[in-house]
């Protein structure tokens, strides 16, 4: 029987299992369109979190939650770790993440602008920009991942 130390010191197996071991970051993904979109969403969500923290702390939880969700998706896609969870429909989850973020940031941004504080107005502006980035990401996901699968199912 092999101990944990023996398994760790062995070279990885060939094939697909070797590709899934560890958390190596795929640099090609980070420079792709999807990677840049996720990085932009992450940066803008963090900026909005800072703006809400400076002005209206009641709305900062929504920005923080979306920040962590986007960070999790960026981590899973960049490390190719999502391939271990093959029973989940990742394009659909990503699409729903974008749609929920659009709804949350539209509501929170318009609610924050009513306070007339400088940081809240900045959060509103960045929120509208972030909503457009999430909408573009949802559009790209739908066009490349969801719509071709639906049209192929109709033809069969």
UniProtKB/TrEMBL annotation:
Membrane-spanning ranges: 42-61, 67-83, 95-113, 119-139
Protein name: CKLF like MARVEL transmembrane domain containing 5
UniProt GO cellular component terms: membrane
InterPro entries: Marvel (IPR008253), MARVEL-CKLF_proteins (IPR050578)
Organism of this sequence: Aotus nancymaae
Top-level taxon of the source organism: Eukaryota
Cell location: Membrane
Presence of the UniProt keyword Transmembrane helix in the record: yes
All copies of domain MARVEL, residue ranges: 29-146
Keywords: Membrane, Transmembrane, Transmembrane helix
Bilayer topology annotation: Multi-pass membrane protein
């Amino acid at each position: 029987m092999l101990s944990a130390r023996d398994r760790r010191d062995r070279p990885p197996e060939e094939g697909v299992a070797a590709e899934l071991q560890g958390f190596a970051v795929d640099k090609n993904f980070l420079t792709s369109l999807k990677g840049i979109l996720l990085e932009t969403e992450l940066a803008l969500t963090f900026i909005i979190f800072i703006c809400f923290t400076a002005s209206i702390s009641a709305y900062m939880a929504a920005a923080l939650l979306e920040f962590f969700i986007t960070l999790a998706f960026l981590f899973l896609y960049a490390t190719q770790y999502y391939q271990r969870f093959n029973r989940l429909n990742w394009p659909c989850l990503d699409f729903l993440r974008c749609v929920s973020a659009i709804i949350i940031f539209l509501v929170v941004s318009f609610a924050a602008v009513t306070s007339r504080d400088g940081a809240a107005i900045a959060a509103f502006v960045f929120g509208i920009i972030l909503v457009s980035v999430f909408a573009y990401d949802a559009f790209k996901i739908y066009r490349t991942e969801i719509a071709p699968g639906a049209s192929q199912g109709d033809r069969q």
